[in-house]
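CORE FACILITY INTAKE
Project code: CF-77B
Contact: R.S. (postdoc)
Sample description: multi-component assembly, two entities in total
Requested service: structural model of the whole complex
Turnaround: standard
Below are the sequence entries exactly as provided by the requester. Do not edit them.
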Amino acid sequence: MTLTFINVVAAVIIAIAFVAANAAYLVWAERKGAGFIQRRPGPLENGPWGLLQPPVDGIKLMTKQLLIPGGVDKIIFVIAPVLAMFPTIVSFVTIPFSETIVAHNMNIGLLMIFVFGSMSAMALLMGGWSSRNKYSMISSVRAVSQAVAYEIPMLITTITVVLIAGSLDLMEIVGKQTGGFWHWNVWPLKAGLFNILMPVSFLIFFVCSLAETNRAPFDLGEAESELVAGFHTEYSSMGFGLFFMGEYANIVIGACLTTILFLGGWDCPFGLFPGVWWFIIKIYALICTFIWIRWTFPRTTIYSLLNLSWKVLIPISLFNLLLTAGLLKVF
Amino acid sequence: MLRYFNDILMGLWSLIIGMGITFREFFKPKVTLLYPHQSVKMPARYRGHVELIPDDEGQPLCVVCGMCEKACPSNCISISGEKPEGSKRKVLTSYILDFTKCSLCGSCVDSCNFGAIRYTKEYNLASTRKEDYHFDLLKRLEESKK
């Protein structure tokens, strides 16, 4: 397929629509999930089962005034929410939903996603720093230290998978895992490579993607009980809306990556009917787990958050990297 | 070293237990009421503002003795009555409760020797005007008859 102007515009529109629809309806799913876990019905008033709640919320946010408080660093203040949303949309370009459904496959797709993923921490820093608000400031510092701490084990775990697949191309990483669930990277049964730490690696990657997306129990960046609303305290209207959508779009990216790296992408667990639906089922199962975790665990403290990364996740993931490299050399 | 791994494993196990609990709660029936559509039935001893108790014909049992008026520490109650020609007892003509000052102490109900007033179960009493809280209980009784 050639890169004509129309193709590019269509791809961008589809990517934005997919991200926005996901972000909107994940908020609904989150509120419904929270409700059910707390034995409430969740959103109910707008439409059947409250399904019209996301568009109503969107209209409310869009019709509100976009306030820019006095004394803020205006340019950065305005750029920050855009920067929170933009990298996640770009990341969707290279994510393969099936063998045929991918906007533009790249042989360094994985690297590109991590490059753009690291920009979202930048957006939080810019938003919090430019707000001229001490709570936003503390929050943005926390967000950055958290992003630094959790990007390391995440990347080390990713390198482990890249070593096994021998490629940074997401299509190829999935291609290496086809043929039933025992071929997936999450199991230690992978042909010729009995690395018993792979499930642990999967767990580390999952925890890191929770932390990278600033989700509870790692949402120290927007700890309401301590920091008002964190980095988006001073944002109103769609400024806040973009941060919010960015967070949910990041969750989708995190789930997609976990699926591709560990759960075999669009591969069917039993070798039947491989296709895009398996990918969709897997990412939504992961997203449901994200929501389930959020409404189960209370927020940690910033110290235990950083301790978990530096004292547990990084050593174990490093050890696993060494073990995998050794096993690959031996077998 | 052993403690380090023990801590990790025990921590992980505690997380799984927690997730199990929320998983079970997810499927249990809901315990909340959808407030504007449904509301809680007030318990028998709930104290709302007072109201007049009607007799079998729907007339108030009140004999206008004025005990409630005297018993009220906040002077919320003002009643008046008249004795029609040929009647043995006084008939209530107005019973005004100023609910803005009432603290729901219940002295009026306690002091009534004729069992003529009781607490209501009203709690949806929001309003933006002070005058809405000057209740005419006689009118209320007549309206409840309809």
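Facility notes:
- The interface with chain B takes residues 33, 36-41, 44, 292-293, 295-297, 312 of chain A (CB under 8 Å).
- The mean pLDDT of chain A is 83.
Invoice: internal transfer
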